[in-house]
């Protein structure tokens, strides 16, 4: 709301121009940059999957979702990380089915 020369009310005070707030690095936390995304994709392409990830992918292919969830939770520590990893690996399985590998 723009201030006016009124003495009372919600928009009281001298008319001023609002100053845009600068974005701090702490407010950017968790946002993935394009460079990071590219580097991680290259590392994934070169290094491949870890043994537990291959095992989880095999469990997902055989529709043993609960066992896969338990395994990833044991390895990664929390259920949220486990769910993210399962989502990532199931997307990779779907992509491989589409390409026909």
TrEMBL record:
One of its GO terms (cellular component) is ribonucleoprotein complex. Residues 1-32 are annotated as: Disordered. Keywords: Ribonucleoprotein, Ribosomal protein. It holds the Pfam family Ribosomal_L36e. GO terms for biological process: translation. GO terms for molecular function: structural constituent of ribosome. Gene3D superfamilies: 60S ribosomal protein L36. The keyword ATP-binding does not apply. Belongs to the eukaryotic ribosomal protein eL36 family. This is 60S ribosomal protein L36. It comes from Steccherinum ochraceum.
């Amino acid at each position: 709301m723009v201030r006016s020369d009124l003495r009372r009310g919600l928009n009281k005070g001298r008319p001023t121009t609002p100053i845009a707030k600068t974005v701090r690095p702490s407010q950017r936390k968790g946002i993935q940059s394009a460079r990071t995304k590219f580097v991680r994709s290259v590392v994934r392409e070169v290094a491949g999957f870890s043994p537990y990830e291959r095992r989880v992918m095999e469990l997902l292919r055989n529709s043993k979702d609960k066992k896969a969830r338990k395994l990833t939770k044991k390895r990664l520590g929390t259920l949220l990380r486990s769910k993210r990893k399962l989502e990532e690996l199931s997307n990779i399985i779907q992509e491989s089915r589409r390409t026909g590998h």
